[in-house]
C-alpha cells in the first residue's frame, strides 16, 4: 500500500494523498482532478500574462481552447480563484505552508486552497469569517466585485457555410433568436446562452462575436473580388468575416507577428472554410489596451486591476507606447499605393488610442487623397469632439453597448481614385 505523501513545512502541512493503483478514482474525483490541473495551467498563463502586460488571450479564450476538456468546471475554478485570490494569498502567508516544492506549483495550490476555503461549506471558511469579522463570504470580496455587465449573446453567421435564415431556424429550436438591425449577418440571443459546444459553433457555421467587433469588417464593406489586407489579424474573427462579406471571392492577406496567435488565426480560417485569405482595402485592428472590453474579458479579476481597484491599471506609459505603435501601423496602412479604403479600429475607450491617433495622421491621409467617411450613419454615438471631422468617427459605449469599440473609416476621394487609375494606365503604357 502506498503511504500518503506529505510536503513538510512550518505551520500546518499541505498534504496530497495518492490513491493505490488498485483503488480507482470515482468519476467525480477524476473530473475534479483534471479540472483542477487544467484550471491551474490556465491560471498560470493568465497571471504570467497579466504580470508582463502581454496576455496570450483572455480567460475565456484560454479556457475554451480545444485542449481543455472540462471547460465549465475549469472556467468556474479559474474565475472564482481569481476573485478570491487576495484572501487566498493572505491565508497562505498566515499559515506559512508553502515550501520550495509547492512554490513551483503555486497556481495549483491557489486552486486547491480555493476549493478548501470556498468550494465547500466547511469550518475553515467559517473561521475566516470570524477572524475578519464578516457575516458572509461575499463581504470578504466586496471590494473586488465589478458591476454586472450581463448582455445579450451575439452570434455572427458564417455565410460561407450557412445562410442567415437557416441559422435562425436551427438556433430557434433552443433559443429565442432575433436578427440585428445593423449588421445583416448578426443574430441576438438571450443573455447567458452557452453555445461553445453547439454544433453550429464547433463546425464553423456561426461565430461567437460581439456586435461592436462585427461592425468593424462591415464598416470596411469590401466587395467580392477585392484584395484586402487584414493587419494584426489574430484571432481571425474579423478576417473570416471579411471573407464572408466578399462571398469568398478575391484575396485577403492576413498578417500576424505572434507565433502563438498565428496558430489561432489558422484554426479560425480552417474552421470558417474561407479559401481567399491570401490591396484595395485594409482593416487595421492593432494591439491596444483593451479597456473597452475589460469587463467581458474578466480583467477585473486580475491582480493588476484589483491592486489599484481599477484606477489607471493600464498606465499612461503603456498607453503612450501603444499609441506610438498604432500611429506607425496606420501610417504604413495609408502608404499602400493601391489602397482605397482603410478601417482603423480598437477595443479601447481611451482618447489617446483613438481620436488622437486619427487626428495625428489625418493631414497625411488628406495628402494621400483620403477623407474621413461615416460608417453606419444611423449609429448615434460618434467620436469625441476634439477636432473638426470627429463626428465621422464611431464609438460604442462600454455601459450602453456593453463593449467599448472605436472605428475610423478613411476612404479615397473620387477624384483621387480617378487620378490613380489614370496614373496606373500611363505607367502600363510605358512598360
From TrEMBL:
UniProt source species: Acer saccharum (Sugar maple)
Domain SAM-dependent MTase RsmB/NOP-type per the UniProt entry, residue ranges: 143-413
Entry keyword annotation includes Methyltransferase: yes
Residues of the signal peptide: none
PROSITE patterns on file: SAM_MT_RSMB_NOP
Pfam families named among the record's database cross-references: Methyltr_RsmB-F, NSUN5_fdxn-like, NSUN5_N
Swiss-Prot/TrEMBL keywords: Methyltransferase, RNA-binding, S-adenosyl-L-methionine, Transferase
Residues given in the record as S-adenosyl-L-methionine binding sites: 232-238, 256, 299
InterPro entries, per the entry: MeTrfase_RsmB-F_NOP2_cat, MeTrfase_RsmB-F_NOP2_dom, NSUN5_7_fdxn-like, NSUN5_RCM1_N, RCMT, SAM-dependent_MTases_sf
Transmembrane segments: none
GO cellular component entries: nucleolus
PANTHER family (alphabetical): 28S RRNA (CYTOSINE-C(5))-METHYLTRANSFERASE, NOP2 YEAST -RELATED NOL1/NOP2/FMU SUN DOMAIN-CONTAINING
One GO-annotated biological process of the protein: rRNA base methylation
Entry GO MF terms: RNA binding; RNA methyltransferase activity
Gene3D superfamilies: Sun protein, domain 3, Vaccinia Virus protein VP39
Similarity remark: Belongs to the class I-like SAM-binding methyltransferase superfamily. RsmB/NOP family.
Active site residues per record: 347
Protein name, UniProt field: SAM-dependent MTase RsmB/NOP-type domain-containing protein
Amino acid at each position: 500500500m502506498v503511504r500518503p505523501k506529505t510536503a513538510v513545512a512550518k505551520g500546518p502541512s499541505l498534504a496530497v494523498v495518492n490513491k493505490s493503483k488498485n483503488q480507482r478514482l470515482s468519476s467525480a474525483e477524476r473530473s475534479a482532478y483534471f479540472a483542477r490541473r487544467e484550471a491551474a495551467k490556465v491560471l498560470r498563463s493568465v497571471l504570467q500574462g497579466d504580470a508582463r502586460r502581454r496576455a496570450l488571450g483572455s480567460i475565456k479564450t484560454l479556457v475554451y481552447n480545444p485542449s481543455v476538456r472540462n471547460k465549465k468546471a475549469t472556467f468556474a475554478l479559474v474565475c472564482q480563484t481569481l476573485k478570491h485570490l487576495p484572501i487566498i494569498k493572505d491565508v497562505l502567508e498566515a499559515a506559512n505552508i508553502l515550501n520550495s516544492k509547492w512554490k513551483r506549483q503555486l497556481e495549483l495550490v491557489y486552486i486547491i486552497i480555493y476549493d478548501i476555503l470556498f468550494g465547500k461549506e466547511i469550518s475553515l471558511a467559517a473561521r475566516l469569517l470570524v477572524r475578519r469579522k464578516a457575516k458572509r463570504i461575499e463581504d470578504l470580496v466586496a471590494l473586488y466585485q465589478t458591476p454586472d455587465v450581463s448582455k445579450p449573446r451575439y452570434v455572427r453567421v458564417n455565410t460561407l457555410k450557412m445562410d442567415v435564415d437557416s441559422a435562425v431556424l436551427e438556433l430557434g429550436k433552443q433559443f429565442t433568436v432575433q436578427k440585428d438591425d445593423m449588421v445583416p449577418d448578426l443574430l441576438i440571443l438571450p443573455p447567458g446562452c452557452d453555445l461553445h459546444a453547439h454544433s453550429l459553433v464547433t463546425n464553423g457555421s456561426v461565430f461567437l462575436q460581439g456586435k461592436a467587433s462585427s461592425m468593424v469588417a462591415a464598416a470596411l464593406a469590401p466587395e467580392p473580388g477585392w484584395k484586402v489586407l487584414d493587419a494584426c489579424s489574430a484571432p481571425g474573427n474579423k478576417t473570416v468575416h471579411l471573407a464572408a462579406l466578399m462571398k469568398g471571392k478575391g484575396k485577403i492577406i492576413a498578417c500576424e507577428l505572434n507565433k502563438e496567435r498565428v496558430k489561432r488565426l489558422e484554426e479560425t480560417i480552417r474552421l470558417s472554410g474561407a479559401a481567399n485569405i491570401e490591396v484595395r482595402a485594409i482593416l487595421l485592428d492593432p494591439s491596444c489596451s483593451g479597456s473597452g472590453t475589460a469587463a467581458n474579458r474578466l480583467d477585473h479579476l486580475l491582480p493588476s486591476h484589483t491592486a489599484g481597484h481599477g484606477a489607471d491599471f493600464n498606465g499612461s506609459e503603456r498607453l503612450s507606447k501603444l499609441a506610438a505603435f498604432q500611429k506607425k501601423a496606420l501610417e504604413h496602412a495609408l502608404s499602400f499605393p493601391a489602397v482605397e479604403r482603410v478601417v482603423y479600429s480598437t477595443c479601447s475607450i481611451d482618447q489617446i488610442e483613438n481620436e488622437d491617433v486619427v487626428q495625428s495622421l489625418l493631414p497625411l491621409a488628406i495628402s494621400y487623397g483620403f477623407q474621413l467617411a461615416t460608417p453606419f450613419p444611423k449609429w448615434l454615438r460618434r467620436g469625441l469632439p476634439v477636432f473638426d471631422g470627429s463626428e465621422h468617427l464611431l464609438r460604442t459605449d462600454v455601459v450602453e453597448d456593453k463593449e467599448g469599440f472605436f472605428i475610423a473609416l478613411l476612404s479615397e476621394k473620387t477624384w483621387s481614385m480617378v487620378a490613380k487609375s489614370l496614373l496606373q494606365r500611363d505607367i502600363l503604357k510605358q512598360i
